[in-house]
Amino acid sequence: MKVLIVLKHRFALWTAPAWFAETLSAEFPDVQFVDRKNYDTIDTDIKDVDVVVSWSLKPEQLVHAKKLRWIHSTAAAIHQLMIPEIVNSNIVVTNARSVHGPVVAEHVLALMFALAKRLPSAIRMQPEHEWGQEAMTREQPPIRELRDSTLGLIGVGSIGSHVATIASAIGMRVFAVRMHPEKGIDWLQRNDPRLSQHRVYGPKDLDRVLRESDFVVITAPVTKATEKLIDTVAFRAMKPDAYLINVARGALIDETALIHALKEKRIGGAALDVFAEEPLPANSPLWDLDNVVITPHQAGIAHKLWERQHALFSQNLSRFLNGAPLIGMVNKKSGY
Q1: What is the pLDDT of residue 73?
Q2: 203 to each of 216, 220, 255, how far by Cα in Å?
């Protein structure tokens, strides 16, 4: 059996370290591992592989893959793999949502606290040696508590579930929008006393959730139904002092509409980790808006990232070899 690892990215951390394949080779001596740092030889490499570890494959590359049975993405988002040649095949797709969920949820929590406590204002005043206590109390939206506020959660996958759990633990109400609301509140134990304050809605009730939320957090996957989901209509529905946080993908927001909403103060502000174009262009108006917190797609960064990636793939490879169900299976028809 042969496994092809091809994980090349402009950001060094997303490229698998050499020890990743070396450790797997020691664990699975009967499996051949081919570790490539670019796609230059993929047409040849992929001809006899059973498994590919990568974020994306092109149709012209798949033509050569005669034995391919499983693709594993080390990302949470897998929209780049949802091409007809894969969706309509018998190839199994898995992702690393269990690796990224807890880490990205921590980043969401950090952003919510930063916005609620107006930390960006304090940081801007620090180089000026300005004691801004009085000035910050006059700013809008005002400094607030997260406790007893309402979180509008758009998407309840691995990341969303972890966000909901943390938000509930600190006393926030969670109003979630998910594709299958019949799944209910599955991020808490059934006997948890906090269940009664949370709500779960379907996509048709998005406006209702936006109207009632103090913080709107986007953790949904990219599909045809979610592209530019948050648009001008959505911004009009949001509270004028509500904050928008996006840790999913930039494609879920109409960025032009967002810039207008922020400039016109239709919403309280935004914290953005992902953008329609990355890196965010230097001439983007978002850089200069004082009601925006920008982080450079760092929500998934963790110092033990590849240790966790290794643990997941190693466990899944054992399952694959033994014919057991895989962790992180993707529903290719749904796109997540």
Answers
A1: 97
A2: 14, 11, 21
Match 């299958």 to its residue by tokens: 180
Q: Report the alpha-carbon distance of residue 55 to residue 247 in Å, rounded.
A: 18
pLDDT of residue 9: 81
Instruction: Collapse the DSSP code of 209 into the 3-class scheme (helix H, G, I; strand E, B; otherwise coil) and give the result.
Output: helix
Q: What separation in angstroms does the CA of 332 have from each of 62, 71, 91? A: 16, 12, 10
Whether 250 contacts 229, CB under 8 Å: no
pLDDT tens sequence across 23-73: 999 999 999 999 998 999 999 999 999 999 999 999 999 999 999 999 999
The active-site residue, picked from 72, 107, 198, 249, is 249
To the query of whether residue 303 is one of the catalytic residues in this protein, the response is no
Enumerate domains of the chain plus CATH numbers. 2-98+303-321 (3.40.50.720), 100-294 (3.40.50.720)
Active site residue 278: yes
Give the distance from CA 14 to its chain's centroid: 14
**CA-wise closest residue to 68 among 78, 79, 81, 213:** 81
Report the distance separating Cα 222 and Cα 228, nearest Å. Answer: 9
57 CB-near residues (< 8 Å, 6+ apart): 65, 71, 81, 83, 86
Instruction: Report the pLDDT averaged over residues 209-229.
Output: 97
